[in-house]
Design brief:
DNA-binding transcription factor activity (chains A, B), DNA-binding, elongated, Peripla_BP_I (chains A, B), alpha/beta, transcription (chains A, B), homodimer, 46% helix
Chain lengths: 337, 337
Amino acid sequence: MKIEEIAKLSGFSKSTVSRVISNNGYVSKETKEKILKIIEEVNYIPNGIARSLSSNKSNTVAVIIPDIQNSYFGDIIKGISNIMDKNNLHMLVYSTDENIKKEKKVFQNVIEQRPSGIILSISLQYHKKKDIKVLLDSGIPFVLFDRQIFDETFTGVFFDDIKGGYLATEALINSGHENIAIITGPFSTTNGLNRLEGYKKAMLEKNKKISEENIYEGNFHFDSGYENTKKILEKNKKTTAIFICNNEMTLGALQAIREKNLKIPDDIAIVSYDNHKYFEILGINISAINRDIEETGMEIAKLLLEEMKNSSRSKKIVIVSPTLILRNSEKLVKIKD
Amino acid sequence: MKIEEIAKLSGFSKSTVSRVISNNGYVSKETKEKILKIIEEVNYIPNGIARSLSSNKSNTVAVIIPDIQNSYFGDIIKGISNIMDKNNLHMLVYSTDENIKKEKKVFQNVIEQRPSGIILSISLQYHKKKDIKVLLDSGIPFVLFDRQIFDETFTGVFFDDIKGGYLATEALINSGHENIAIITGPFSTTNGLNRLEGYKKAMLEKNKKISEENIYEGNFHFDSGYENTKKILEKNKKTTAIFICNNEMTLGALQAIREKNLKIPDDIAIVSYDNHKYFEILGINISAINRDIEETGMEIAKLLLEEMKNSSRSKKIVIVSPTLILRNSEKLVKIKD
DNA sequence: ATGAAAGCGCTAACAC
DNA sequence: GTGTTAGCGCTTTCAT
């Protein structure tokens, strides 16, 4: 079934039918109704591919994320999807699996589809401008989120990770901790570095000693939270608190702590970056830096829509400020000697 | 940049360049290399939309799910994405938000995009064949998953929910429980009905009395697990165990149980449908019916690829058998009088 | 092994 | 208001 048949059936030309379908251009009310009725009757559904090619608008948005399975990105996608739906945009989803090589191939695939816009959260490896050259060259509007590129600033939505790191550390300091360990994110990411910077800033401001051996570089994955926490608990006897820089690693830390039969905060205090809805539901009291993720997804989508409207690369940055939720896991209960 | 420019630069015709890009048809080795080199040099990326229109193959697969945010569907998508990647297929993702009205609109949008295949998990409302008529009429190969249509069988991957319901109930009976409540899924779904059927089957076989007041119709959402559990704990004093028919409702149940300061299994035994990775990690011991979800996602994708290859509607059904993981939450500790 | 030409299903000037 | 016509950027016969 194509537009030509509708034209024949209705007695009008292809263009008139096209105008009805696209709902633009001059068509008399009666004509419109007549054509609409026929479309309804024969269950005609226009070919979006042909429309895209002809109009040079794909009405499609590509979302590129590092890991579909991660509930954080699930929530982001939910927010994006919500806005895209309302704007009749289709959503292509790609996962790079935190792999910069796969990411490169994904970029190529994405451009082939000629989406009207691109949303991208880069993989955890160190990224410079040249790593997204294909996207830049394509001229397609895009917005970054969460993770930043080192040598240039692009339109995007990011979190104030320095503030988050600061708040978490400050909470521990205010509870009386002196010897605070941190399990960071990878130093190849702005997020990893900024949260650490927040930690250092808080320690300095409050006149606490920053000791290199209290800094453990993690990689944002479960195992790294588990292993580093074990190390801390075994080697660093004076440590009374740990600031863990994301939720996956916190889950790993919880496992390590449980295996050692330690209690939070009695034996070890912690603050986590990123709240997890299950913490609350399951009655696990972990103080955490909190971000409204679905809402952020909506922000990201809106920013992209703006870029698409102006077909620009505005380099506009939206910074989302995290907050701290206290649930007593940060308390200092006994001082180790 | 289009194919014509590559043709000019290389001195060959559009057709030859096209053959190189599609890697099909006769092209001499030297010609191919020459053209490939030029494509590389000028960073030419073919227009997938034009290719789709011309070749009548979109290389795109649409995945329609009820709720993107639900980690169950996140895991499924991960599995699907894995297989689609390997087959160079793009993935369009649509969420119907468990809303049959939105679902209808989504179907329309999906067909417009002329995907090469469709993967669909219907929303929780009662579905008959007519509700997916648009898809059927389109002629596009599709596979259903998890949730079935009442009046006809279509190609798909489903779980043996009767067996799952049976295993869960049997575990409780074997632990010595007599008075077992069940919080079911909605009766508008095969899943809800089948899990209940499994429950009844186990009760009958083991000569336990099935009492209507032990059957609570839930809706698979958190609140319904919470509310129904509260009801059970308050009204049904003789109940020593609850079989909760999905993981979201189990989270709700856990909250209700915690609010009443009851212990599992000391005060109330439970078995949950669907394991949750966080149960284990967070040290929450809940016996549960387990399914390998990401693996299932891969099965689904493979089944669709088969359908696409044969461009058929085979009505082939794959049934995935769930298993039971026991973690002591099913134990009978004290008998109520 | 390569090229010429028609056409995929639609949109968008432009003409009337 | 409506129709005519020329593409959109490719693929795919059919020649040669």
